[in-house]
Design brief:
Elements (H helix, E strand, L loop, with lengths): L8 H9 L4 E2 H11 L5 H13 L3 E4 L2 E4 L1 H4 L3 H11 L16 E8 H18 L5 E5 L4 H4 L1 H13 L4 E5 L4 H5 L9 E5 L10 E6 L2 E6 L2 H13 L5 H12 L1 E10 L1 H11 L10
Parallel strand pairs: 5-6, 6-7
Antiparallel strand pairs: 1-3, 2-3, 4-10, 5-8, 8-9, 9-10
Helix pairs in contact: 6-8
């Protein structure tokens, strides 16, 4: 339980992060004020456990609650989303001006995806009812990380938006995930060939915000070979794909706010889809 009579250190960490991201030094000071015997080693041990469980995210020395997890904790989510979705918070990509961007780097694709969904949930919360458009060379998320990807799709639809996905191929695994889309609120289009020359490039658009991700180039090649040979999502195949995305590799992640670029990309990606006009 998050709120019990005798809180443990994990619960203290979660409650402090409820009010927004903190640097590790700040978090330690808060913890030591309430629990004077807390050590840096003890705090990091708890953070490693919470990161592994995808309850919190860590980028450099900044710690934040994972919004994917927050959306599943009904008693906790309302207040926390109020803080996390506030565009006025210093350092948040939600406070970007037109033409600005924030860059992140990760060392494996699995960690990238956790932060990716976290970022998308924040954008959806800040811009409800807006369609989400995306291009992936292959939408391996519905195979390797199906639970979190379904949570994103369902959250977006619940907020009144649309989940619109373009992929750059028609491999058996590409075709397999068509069942995840209803054809209206969630739509899916498979191209005959890639839309962009780089097979490690992924892009998402919500409102004027663009998320661009370049996964590790070598890892992208392995994913391409995997998709060329796999024909069904057996447990063994799913595990192989999960092992690929857990492997180490440098990923570049950029969130930008650029109205003209977003409009251009939206026009390019939206052609296969039906998007109702907004009131």
């Amino acid at each position: 339980m998050l709120f019990s009579a005798h809180k443990n250190l994990e619960q203290n960490v979660i409650e402090y992060l409820q009010k927004g991201p903190l640097f590790t030094g700040e978090l330690l000071k808060f913890l030591q004020k309430e629990r004077p015997r807390t050590t840096k080693q003890g705090m990091y041990a708890v953070l490693r456990k919470l990161i592994q469980a995808e309850v919190v995210l860590k980028h450099k020395q900044q710690i934040s609650l994972n919004v994917t997890w927050l959306t599943n904790v009904e008693s906790f989510v309302t207040l926390a989303e109020h803080f996390y979705a506030s565009a006025s918070r210093s350092g948040s990509f939600l406070s970007l001006e037109d033409g600005e961007n924030i860059r992140y780097e990760f060392h494996n694709t699995n960690a990238t995806d956790a932060f990716w969904i976290h970022s998308l949930l924040l954008l959806v919360e800040a811009h409800p009812k807006m369609p989400w458009l995306a291009y992936n060379p292959h939408d391996w998320f519905f195979i390797a990380r199906a639970e979190s990807e379904r949570a994103l799709r369902d959250f977006l639809i619940k907020k009144g938006g649309q989940y619109l996905m373009v992929v750059g191929g028609k491999c058996p695994l590409d075709k397999l995930i068509r069942k995840e889309f209803d054809g209206k609120r969630s739509q899916y289009f498979m191209r005959e060939s890639p839309m962009f020359p780089q097979d490690n490039y992924y892009v998402n658009i919500i409102a004027d915000y663009i998320i661009e991700v370049w996964i590790d180039a070598a890892q992208a090649k392995v994913i391409e070979r995997f998709y060329a040979t796999a024909t069904e999502a057996t447990p063994e195949v799913v595990k192989q794909l999960q092992d690929i995305i857990r492997s180490k590799g440098k990923t570049k992640f950029i969130v930008s706010r650029n109205k003209k670029k977003a409009e251009k990309l939206r026009a390019k990606l939206s052609k296969p889809f039906y998007i109702p006009k907004r009131d």
